Amino acid sequence: MQNKTVSAVNIALTALFVAALVILIMTFSIGLPIYCRFFYYIQIKTLGMEEATGWSYDTIKAAYDDVLNYLTLPGFEFGTGELKWSESGMSHFADCKALFNLNLFGFIGAAVVALAIGLAARFKRITLCRPFGMNCAFLSGVIALALPVILALLVLIVGFDNAFVAFHSVFFPGKSNWVFDPYEDEIIRVMPEQFFLNCAILIAVSWIVISSAMIAVSAISARRKAKKSAE
Q1: What are the CA-CA distances from residue 71 to residues 25, 35, 37, 97, 225 (Å)?
Q2: What is the pLDDT of residue 1?
Q3: Angle in degrees, 0-180, between the axes of helices 57-72 and 87-122, rounded to the nearest 10
Q4: Based on C-alpha coordinates, what's the Rg of the chain?
Q5: Whole domain around residue 70: which residue ranges?
Q6: What is the tens place of the pLDDT at every residue in 74-85?
Q7: What is the distance between the alpha carbons of residues 17 and 217, in angstroms, rounded to a whole number?
């Protein structure tokens, strides 16, 4: 009976560890275009925002910084620099702020769980299972890698515009405040569709690279251990 209990605990902790690693990959990748502001800054020039709007680089950058300060830092009121904004636009960014915080808390929570379980396994306090003969890092990489591939296929099938609408329908159910009037909420004029597509590409590339690296490192490590055992 005790062995069964221990096995059940090990299975549960292994599943939790794998889930935490997958969430870490996901939330880290999503956070990249949010917290790496230079990713936006370089697109002010490359996407021709100055020419398209008539505003200077500094005006566009200041507007973006105001929005990101509100979305990612505590104690900041909503603002868009010198650009006009509406109550409806502000309410959408308030919804975004909740999602950004959820992503941040998810990252922190997953990091704490993964670190705690990883240390416990390292110091032999628990024994992690090896489903299908794979270690947790390998399995997490495989699961995490499958998710953006499936998502990318769906986007290719339905098209980015439809996927963009579906995304907002899922994460902002029953709301239409994400449809901006560029004359009422001028910030949308410096957040063109191509920028959001580039954000999606950055997230996908980061997600795939990290997942693939985990798989590769785990496979190489397992091969070296097998070779060492055979000697």
Answers
A1: 21, 10, 12, 5, 46
A2: 43
A3: 60
A4: 22
A5: 2-230
A6: 999 999 999 999
A7: 18
Rounded mean pLDDT of 153-169?
79
DSSP type of residue 131: G
pTM for the model: 0.86
DSSP code string of 203-219: HHHHHHHHHHHHHHHHH
Q: How far is CA 97 from CA 72, 183, 219, in A?
A: 7, 23, 39
**How confident is residue 18, by pLDDT bands cut at 50, 70 and 90?**
very high
Residue in the block written with tokens 């309410």: 91
Q: What is the pLDDT of residues 169-222, one digit of tens each?
A: 777 877 878 888 999 999 999 999 899 999 989 998 999 999 999 999 888 877
Confidence of residue 229 (pLDDT cuts 50, 70, 90): low
* 3-state per-residue secondary structure call for 47-106: CCHHHHHCCCHHHHHHHHHHHHHHHHCCCCCCCCCCCCCCHHHHHHHHHHHHHHHHHHHH
Residue type, 30: I
- pLDDT above 50 for 108: yes
Q: How many domains does the structure of the chain reveal? A: 1
Give the number of residues written for the chain.
Answer: 231
